[in-house]
């Protein structure tokens, strides 16, 4: 019989389809030395008992305790790592003012590598402790500090996709925080890509460079063209913000006389490996272009409540064939938890469906068929994120990475309300999605390695 690096026995939840959660009750999960799920064995399979006999009592056999469950690790498609330093504050003014008043000043401090190290170590550890095993990060304009973030992900065992931010347009960015010019921004980006590719060679779980123009209002055309070329040359991921707020959306219309999606496409920035944050104001043509190019939406429901001036019709956009995952958008979104964001995704979608102005008659108030279920929000936080990044992550299935969170529903001080040992497992799943706190996340594994425990 095969020799596995780890064997886990327990009950797991994983998305079978966007709308359906599959329960794998008391299954065996066999992990190989690459950190991949090589085999999943159900209790009724003939090799279940022989494998149990072989591994039982071994150091690499992990039997989940009563009340513990496995979930796939979360994939956060949009995090501003430096903004962790102001999370939970500065949410009182509109997007453009917020950037200039709070966010550019704090991001500019990351030229100081000591400060950067403190914040970046904390944000990576915090996301891991919240069950996020893969994160798509914006760093800052600073090449060295951005590389430091990639190194910290590599060391702490998180799968990090990291971008040095590009913002070079003098009249939209303050002199104290912008790239010197397009040429420097492109040269720094290319050096950053090469350095992260080098780091990736010794990083088991993977670390990836991301071409990261901040958003259309922050770049010159020259930088935009060059970044599209760099992404194509090195086949990198691309991330940016797209059609986020009335102001950002309007700015792009004024400058290019088109929506963000087509403007981004003109610069070669919509590709299979592109993830665009927010996307609240996509129209039907924009949506078709996203689907056609394989561009994914990083849906940031908490942040959107503050800055996006609208609720994005996720259910509709998903029905158009667009890949969608969830993003925390720290610190536009205050929470580092994709549990919190999944909850908000459901609540916002219900408000979109019903509408919010009680002065209107019910039939005119909302947008029908907008609701998301918690099962769909879970899909976006896991498998949807994995598909958006075209990586084998976000599902507990054979040939996927062993990226998991072990949830304990039975903790004395943070116990979930489960009073019947035979409670329906789908109900337990829903309680987990709505009620888990970081304390309940007892272990987190990435690519077959334990990276967090409490
Ligand atoms: N648009 C440009 N930069 C940002 C940012 O840092 N956060 C959000 N939410 N939107 C942006
Ligand atoms: Fe953002």
Automatic annotation (TrEMBL):
InterPro entries: Amidohydro-rel, Guanine_deaminase, Metal-dep_hydrolase_composite, Metal_Hydrolase, Metallo-dep_hydrolases
Enzyme Commission no: 3.5.4.3
Annotated family: Belongs to the metallo-dependent hydrolases superfamily. ATZ/TRZ family.
Enzyme class (EC, first level): hydrolase
Note accompanying the cofactor annotation: Binds 1 zinc ion per subunit.
Domain of life the protein comes from: Bacteria
Entry function: Catalyzes the hydrolytic deamination of guanine, producing xanthine and ammonia.
Keywords: Hydrolase, Metal-binding, Zinc
Pfam family, one: Amidohydro_1
Species this chain originates from: Neobacillus kokaensis
Pathway: Purine metabolism; guanine degradation; xanthine from guanine: step 1/1
Swiss-Prot/TrEMBL catalytic activity: guanine + H2O + H(+) = xanthine + NH4(+)
Protein name: Guanine deaminase
Cofactor(s) essential for the protein: Zn(2+)
Domain Amidohydrolase-related: 69-451
Residues passing through the membrane, by range: none
């Amino acid at each position: 019989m095969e020799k596995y690096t780890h064997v886990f026995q327990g009950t797991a939840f994983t998305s079978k389809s966007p709308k359906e959660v599959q329960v794998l009750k008391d299954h065996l999960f066999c992990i190989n030395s690459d950190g991949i799920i090589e085999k999943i064995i159900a209790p009724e399979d003939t090799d279940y008992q022989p494998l149990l006999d072989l591994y039982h009592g071994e150091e690499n056999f992990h039997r989940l305790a009563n009340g513990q469950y496995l979930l796939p690790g979360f994939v956060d498609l949009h995090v501003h790592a430096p903004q962790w330093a102001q999370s939970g504050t500065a949410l009182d003014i509109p997007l453009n003012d917020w950037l200039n008043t709070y966010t550019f000043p704090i991001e500019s401090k990351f030229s100081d590598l000591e400060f950067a190290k403190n914040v970046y170590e904390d944000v990576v550890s915090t996301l891991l402790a919240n069950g996020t095993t893969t994160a798509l990060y914006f760093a800052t304009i600073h090449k060295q500090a951005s590389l430091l973030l990639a190194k910290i992900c590599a060391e702490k065992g998180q799968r990090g996709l990291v971008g040095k931010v590009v913002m070079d347009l003098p009249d939209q960015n303050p002199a104290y925080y912008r790239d010197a010019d397009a040429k420097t921004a492109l040269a720094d980006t290319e050096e950053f890509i090469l350095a992260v590719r080098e780091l990736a060679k010794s990083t088991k779980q993977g670390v990836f460079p991301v071409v990261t123009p901040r958003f259309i209002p922050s770049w010159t055309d020259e930088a935009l063209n060059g970044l599209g070329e760099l992404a194509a040359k090195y086949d990198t991921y691309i991330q940016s913000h797209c059609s986020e707020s009335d102001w950002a959306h309007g700015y792009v219309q004024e400058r290019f006389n088109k929506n963000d999606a087509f403007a981004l496409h003109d610069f070669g920035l919509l590709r299979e490996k592109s993830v665009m944050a927010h996307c609240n104001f996509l129209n039907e043509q924009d949506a078709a272009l996203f689907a056609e190019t394989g561009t994914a939406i990083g849906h940031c429901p908490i942040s959107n409540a503050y800055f996006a001036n609208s609720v994005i019709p996720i259910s509709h956009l998903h029905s158009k064939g667009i890949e969608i995952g969830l993003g925390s958008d720290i610190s536009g979104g205050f929470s580092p938890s994709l549990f919190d964001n999944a909850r908000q995704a459901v609540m916002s979608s219900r408000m979109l469906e019903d509408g919010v102005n009680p002065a209107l008659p019910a039939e005119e108030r909302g947008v029908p068929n907008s609701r998301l279920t918690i099962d769909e929000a879970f899909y976006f936080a896991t498998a949807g994120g994995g598909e958006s990044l075209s990586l084998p992550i976000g599902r507990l299935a054979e040939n996927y990475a062993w990226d998991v969170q072990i949830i304990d529903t039975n903790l004395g001080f943070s116990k979930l309300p489960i009073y019947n040992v035979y409670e329906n497992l789908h109900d337990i799943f829903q309680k987990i999605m709505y009620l888990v706190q970081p304390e309940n996340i007892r272990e987190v594994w990435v690519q077959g390695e334990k990276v967090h425990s409490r």
